[in-house]
Design goal:
- With about 350 residues, the chain is α/β, with parallel strands linked by helices.
- The protein has 14 helices and 13 strands.
- A 7-stranded mixed sheet has the order 9-8-7-10-11-13-12, sandwiched between helices. The protein has a 6-stranded parallel sheet with strand order 3-2-1-4-5-6.
- Helix 1 links the parallel strand 1 and strand 2.
- The N and C termini lie far apart (about 55 Å).
């Protein structure tokens, strides 16, 4: 297909989804260096696109605004683009894509009553495939334009030098080996237990590694970090709530390793090329496993105790037949516990780190 003069990529979901969509923008920019490529995202997720060289501009849609405000926002984008790419099947991505562009290509849900009007708005409708990884699914959009290739994500960057990062973190990030831990996911049912984090911190410190902890600037997450650190607080570099996503990404490039649950920061670490241990419970890694920096050559298995893909070691409690259930924990709500994560011992996590050649005794 001939390159359009301008293109809008619509990603109206969460932080992790925005990161996973950057593979589309990257492929477009590689093929069409002169095209105006912009992105539309929800407020609060635009930090995942900081410093992204593949984008000319980012439009930010406020969350929770009423119909009139949404209409005004849509009118501000009216017919500004030649082409819109819509990688999500929701209503709003399709409505805003329709308002913004003369031509549209997008994913549509398989259920007829939910898809007919969306397919009608599109020049090319692609049936969503719920059985493949989201990055693989999103890559169908550039492929529909004749642009194939292994998707590679683009992490954000604040452009910080090692010296600037060292000043921010309080230690020399180039000379002192450190491991980044991100204990608090957005949803409680994705948490690993505090006892495991306690033991892991001690094991890493015993091997001469500095422990750096990150967290979102959310009170509940910072409170859980305080619980995790407990008596180890003084010996740990706690950067929880102090770094932007872009600054965190810059820090991760220097880390010896990263450990975290199924959360956006774990996807970010994988995209940065950091040796990453991902603790997965109810989530199906075939759909949402962290995407390695050089791409996913072999798809994840549905359930396997420890599977290595590129710079990622993904850990699951495969002893339980219900893993992964794709549900919100054992109680089926976001504040639920998850037995599969509660029963993962620290030793399994450390074994995963050793698989990545991190933390071996010298």
């Amino acid at each position: 297909m001939q390159a359009p003069a301008s293109l809008l990529l619509v990603s109206l979901r969460y932080l992790g989804d925005v990161l996973l969509t950057t593979g589309v923008a990257r492929r477009l920019r590689e093929a069409w260096p002169q095209v105006q490529i912009d992105m539309l995202v929800f407020a609060g997720t635009e930090g995942m696109l900081a410093g992204n060289p593949d984008l000319n501009a980012v439009h930010v849609l406020p969350r929770g605004i009423g119909f009139a405000a949404q209409l005004r926002f849509a009118l501000s984008l009216w017919n500004r683009y030649e082409l819109a790419l819509i990688p999500q099947t929701g209503d709003r991505p399709h409505v805003f894509g329709w308002a913004a562009a003369q031509r549209r290509i997008g994913l549509v849900p398989p259920v007829r009553k939910r898809r007919f009007w969306k397919a009608w708005l599109l020049e090319q409708a692609l049936d969503a495939d719920a059985s493949v990884h989201r990055v693989t699914e999103y890559a169908r959009l550039p492929a529909a334009l004749g642009l194939s290739g292994t998707p590679r994500l683009r992490p954000p960057s604040a452009g910080l030098s090692a010296a600037a990062l060292s000043a921010l973190a309080g230690f020399d990030v180039e000379k002192e080996p450190f491991v980044v831990l991100h204990p608090a996911p957005r949803r409680l049912y994705k948490r690993w237990h505090a006892e495991g984090w306690h033991a892991l911190i001690k094991a890493l410190q015993a091997r001469g590694l500095r422990v750096v902890v990150t967290a979102a600037p959310v009170e509940a997450e910072r409170a859980y970090v305080d619980e995790v650190l407990g008596p180890s607080k003084a010996a740990v570099t706690n950067l929880g709530g102090k770094l932007s996503l872009a600054q965190t990404a810059d820090l991760l490039h220097y880390a010896a390793a990263y450990v975290g649950p199924d959360t956006a920061t774990t996807h970010l670490a994988a995209a940065c090329g950091t040796p990453t241990v991902a603790l997965y419970g109810p989530t199906d890694p075939r759909l949402w496993g962290p995407w390695p920096a050089d791409g996913l050559a072999t798809p994840y298995e549905k359930s396997f105790a420890l599977q290595r893909r590129g710079n990622v070691a993904l850990l699951q409690n495969s002893a339980l037949a219900c893993v992964p259930c794709q549900l919100e924990g054992c109680e089926r709500h976001r504040d639920s516990y998850s037995q599969c994560l509660d029963e993962v011992p620290m030793e399994a996590v450390f074994t995963a780190l050793q698989r990545l050649q991190v933390g071996r005794a010298t």
